Amino acid sequence: MNVRRLACVLPAFPVLALGQATQSPTDLLHEGLAAMGGEQKIQALSTIHLEASVIRSMLEQSERPEGPYILENNQVEEWRDLAHSN
């Protein structure tokens, strides 16, 4: 009985998916800009500062598959000067 219900419900999923409205890429872009404070605020940025810490496990470079694994640690800091295109 459960198989019959599943067989009746599964064909309805594509029909339900088609009924949902998809957003255009332009609408998604405007939503993202609004979430970050608006287009004018983003255009007014003069510098961007990015800091990241990365830990990478190099599994295939290790001597044994069960470990210990070789770890690579990196610190990244980057500044972008948007006012002068640097």
Report what the structure shows.
- With 86 residues, the chain is of the alpha+beta class.
- The protein folds into two domains: 1-44, no CATH class; 46-86, no CATH class.
- Helices cover 37% and strands 28% of the residues.
- The longest helix is centred in the middle third of the chain and has 11 residues, at 25-35.
Concise account of the structure shown:
The protein is an alpha+beta fold and 86 residues long. 37% of the residues lie in helices and 28% in strands.
Separation, N- and C-terminal Cα atoms? 67 Å
Q: What is the number of E strands? A: 2
Assembly state: single chain
- Which of globular, elongated, flat, extended, rod-shaped describes the shape? flat
Count of DSSP helices? 4
- The SSE order reads HHHHEE
Structural class estimated from helices and strands? alpha+beta
**C-alpha-based Rg, rounded:** 25 Å
Low-pLDDT windows of residues: none
- Give me the side-by-side strand order of the main sheet: 1-2
Total number of domains: 2
Helix content: 25-40%
Major sheet: size, sense and barrel closure?
2 strands, antiparallel
What proportion of the residues form beta strands (DSSP E)?
Answer: 25-35%
